[in-house]
Design brief:
63 residues; mainly beta; 1 helix
Length: 63
């Protein structure tokens, strides 16, 4: 899966705050994303993060 910085993604399961959308803030071997509901940041291994993504909502092209 091709994930870029500042992509908005929707997850299969919701965050405890009730929001399902996150913004990717770091890409590498680990993926760091920020919840759009409460602002909490979560860092996961890329393989685990890719499994939990339902689909990418907004794709930001590299400039």
């Amino acid at each position: 899966m091709d994930l870029q910085l500042n992509d908005r993604v929707e997850l299969k399961k919701q965050h405890p705050c009730g929001c399902k959308t996150f913004v990717i803030t770091r890409v590498g071997m680990d993926i760091k994303w920020r919840c759009e509901g409460c602002g909490r940041e979560v860092m996961l291994a890329r393989s685990k993060a890719e499994k939990s993504i339902k689909h990418v909502l907004t794709v930001h092209e590299a400039e």
